Amino acid sequence: MIKRLFRKLVDVTDEELGALLWATAYGFFILFAYYILRAVRDEISSADRGNLQLLWTAVFLVMLGAVPLYSWLTSRFSRSVFVPLANRFFIACLLAFFLALEILPEGARPWLDRVFYVWTSVFALFVVTVFWGFVNDCFSNAQGRRLYAFIAVGSSLGGIAGSSVTAVVAEIVPRFDLLLLACLPLEAASWCVGPMSRWLAGKAVSGSGDTLADGGDESIARANRPLAGNAWSGIREVFRSPYLMGIAAFIALMTFASTVLYFEQAYLVGQAIADRGARTAFYARLDLAVNALTIVFQVYLTARIIRLIGVGLSLALVPGVVFLGFATLGTMPLLAVLVAVQVAYRAGRYGITRPAREILFTVVGREQKYKSKAFVDTAVYRGGDLASGWIFAGLKALGLSLGAIALVAAPLAGAWAVLGYRLGRRQDELAMASLDYPEGTTSAARR
Helix crossing, 335-348 with 302-331: angle to 10°? Predict the structure, then answer.
């Protein structure tokens, strides 16, 4: 009965069902934890909005050190070890923050807020990047086109759960008590890794790339071994591959659009809502609306859209919406308009762009799926944030209004759409070629 129910929602085989459920549960718990912390972080951005570009500079510098450390871990430990290890490291950090808030004097709170903001920004990218890297390692390109939309549903449900909890309790408990609550789903996510690794250790992708078949002892050993290379090899792969460089450019343009919307949101919300608890609840309700709409995309539309128009046009959809949103904000820079654009952008980004973007990584080797992807999704992402934050601050210093800045950002959203389409076309070419490549083929050879 369960199998029949799932087949009505997603095109899944009997062999894939267990892996699909574990991956979906993993994504649920990761996003549950993140969305508990996200509203706390975003409230800090409104309270300290004059220093956002400085905070994002700190985030980028931390990322530059974190990515090689993570790459080193992936070269020393199997995925069944380093994936839960990454999650539990962040649990330890949350406990340390809570103790610091209990022990340190009230005068230290502004600096604790800033450190927590930086840490949460690092956390947000790393736990999601590790999750999707693990998923990309488990499923083929053909499987990703069928299954990723449903896996993303689990993430969105986790976001709804985290947002709902935060919206209810943010105004009745101290903000940082939420840190302890976020530890629970993070630990649950860590427990999902073991069953998923055991399920997939004895499996290998068949020649068609669409089903799972028993791979024997050799496949088990290959799946569980640490990655090749060293702490810097994944970064070098990005600069050697035009395909990975294109993905990095796509991420950079996406972060510019996100940053402009985020900064304008911080200013407009900070001006409209004075109480910090009320602002936290507002951000939680905004997150709830985003995740509810995202669910609609992922359950009913995403897989059909990707199948109907392909990865390239799917990647170009949301940038096109952002282009129209910036044009509207340019003439009506109001909080209500900003909320509408943010909800449409973020729901489309998580519901359509994210699954389509993850499909881009299904045609590269394991080292690129973990190491290169980590560099692109964290250091490049936060580097884009950093550059975009200073650009926004510079435009404000020149006297440009929020509406004028939105109009400046609109053409770059158009370039983002064009690049997404071209990446999708290239992914199709690599997907066809990769059917004949053995595991471990480098991205340089694939291009």
Answer: 160
Domain spans of the chain, in order of start: 8-446
- The string of pLDDT tens digits covering residues 236-250 is 888 888 999 999 999
Handedness of CA 71, 76, 79, 83 (dihedral sign): negative
The pLDDT tens digits for 93-113 are 999 988 888 888 777 777 888
Question: How far is it, in rounded angstroms, from Cα 384 to Cα 10?
Answer: 35
Q: Does domain 8-446 have CATH number 2.40.100.20?
A: no
- Is residue 416 within 8 Å of 322, Cβ to Cβ? yes
Poorest-confidence range of 109-113, 359-363, 391-395, 420-424?
A: 109-113
- Could you give the CA distance from residue 311 to residue 406 in angstroms, rounded to a whole number? 27
pLDDT band at 230 (very low <50, low <70, confident <90, very high): low
Per-residue 3-state assignment (H helix, E strand, C coil) for 281-342: HHHHHHHHHHHHHHHHHHHHHHHHHHHHHHHHHHHHHHHHHHHHHHHHHHHCCCHHHHHHHH
